[in-house]
Amino acid sequence: MSEQQNLDPVTFEVLKNSFITSVDQMAEQILRTCYSFVIYNRDFSSALHDAEGNSAAQGNQDIAVHVGTLHFTCKDVIRAFDGDMHPGDVYAINDPYAGGTHFNDVRLIRPIFVDGRIIAFSQSNGHWSDLGGSVPGSFDVAAKEMFKEGMRITPIRLFDKGRFCKDVAHLIASNTRDPASIIGDIHAQAQATQVCEREILRLVGKYGEGTVKQGLGAVQDYVERAMRQRIAALPDGEWETQDFIDRDPAGNEGMIPIKVKLTIKGDRAIYDFTGSHPTIGSIYNSAFGATFSAVAAGMKTFFPDLPLNSGFYRVFEIIAPEGSIVDAKWPVAVTGFLMPFEKIMNAIYEIWSKIIPERAIACAFNLEYLLTGGRDARAAEKPIFMFYDWLPGGWGGRNGMDGCNVTTACFGTGLMAQPVEGQERANPILTTEFEVLTDSAGPGKWRGGAGVMKTSRMLEAENTVISYICDRERAIVWGIEGGLPSMPHGLTLTREKTGRKEWLGATFSDVAIEAGDIFSRPTAGGGGFGDPLERDAQRVLADVIDDYVSVERAAKDYGVVIHPVDPEICAYEIDAAATVALRRQIRAERLGWLETDPAEISARFKAGEIDALDAVRRHAVILDWDTGDLLPVSTEQFRDMYRKRSAACWQ
After folding, report:
1. EC (predicted)?
2. Which of 424, 433, 437, 465 has its CA 20 to 30 A from that of 302?
3. Is the confidence at residue 74, as pLDDT, over 90?
């Protein structure tokens, strides 16, 4: 904790909120001036830092994945240009090995001067839709090293004393598939940092340089004190769990473990990732900065009332084995870091749910990225188009409350679901289906939130490829305290020429598609919380009426027998006696379902006797969802998790 002269409470509160407002004003500037549709849909974050680069303020809608990394990149710029910074300078960096996330997240950083002295830094981070590399969108899941991922930008100067370094900016933009948007976004982000600068200088003019500098330190000290007090009030102890990445495409069958142990000692929290898997042969690795951010975001979820700044970061320590999937080193590929990121967040959710059970929450769905690029044949010049899409899904059931339906991922709740009208205007793609997906929510006493299904048709385009960056096809979204899992992720492609459906799964890149081809993908719901047989039957009935749950799965998952009276007017009725009998039967048999030979489940799936939800929710068996072949190692891992999180809590 820094030594700061105390500010009077009123001035402190005014400055604390003014700092946050200055960052929110940066966001408003970005929204009004950005060129990229991706950034316009809020895949960006901003920050205000003190003179040492420590984060003093984040915005109210900044997305979780960025906020814990921005101080690292600010400090790296300070190291690179120490003694050579001037008013009007703006620097750029996207280096994940220096504390960033992935190459697409490009940060612009401006030093803020008063009378020749740096008192603060403003930073604007935006996800550029393409940074070059081997595939449109720069997400090549087969990349093992960064050289296929795009351009790594170590600290460079983009504005020199206010002069735009056009040659440097155009060198960067010319190595992407969308140079015009890149140049536009550079100016938008640079102007955003200037908006923050003006606000900080206004505060200096009103309160004085010394008071503002004190405020920048005091807001961090305030958060640190508050967090230390709250942690100290908790019992000391150790808690541990693990989650999984679906696979190593370059390795053998079996899920990739990420192990997390939390130790609370006094007023400190220690997160130990010892035992996590070494880096894998794809982009699904996380450098330390992204892992740090996942820890911060996961823990901060349980303390939502405090502002987020570097004071929060001072109260925890991270032990991450070098060369592991949570501490990848150059040149290991890390563009898909968001997959381990969300596993870390959900593992931390589970741990803190044990410590603060009144805020408990089950696993949330996994963010997915769909990237399609090629030549837009609707225009005579056939320009390059970049369709970069993500979907909302379901969050986990909570202690006393159902999970949130159709919500952006825990990766970044500030993200917006992209409007299909804007997508169709900019890309030769037509959306034919976008709706809440029945039975996607993990069953529980408090069910998970529901996911969605989105289907799109390729229109007039040439030389087009599609990539899908996702997970939870095998490490399926899980429930806690007796709750059940959700459903597998994965994309299905229907070829117009043959009419044949191809299950491509949750991880692939650079698949050629043609005009008329249809691609469809669901997002999972959240995991269930509590035994689904304890859910009020009237709530199950309401879920059936709302199309969150089908009549069939109401019986299979909840043991509630519902008869349709007139589905056209949503008229259904519960068979109370049959429900009592069915729930008694399920209680008697469900532990035995977990002991069924997985090979038998595979055979029954292939024969069409059971579906994927039966395999996952009743038998905890993981299959190749295209062929039905058993994945024995993944099944063993998934069953182990299922027994601990679900079956162990059944009465």
Report:
1. 3.5.2.14
2. 437
3. yes
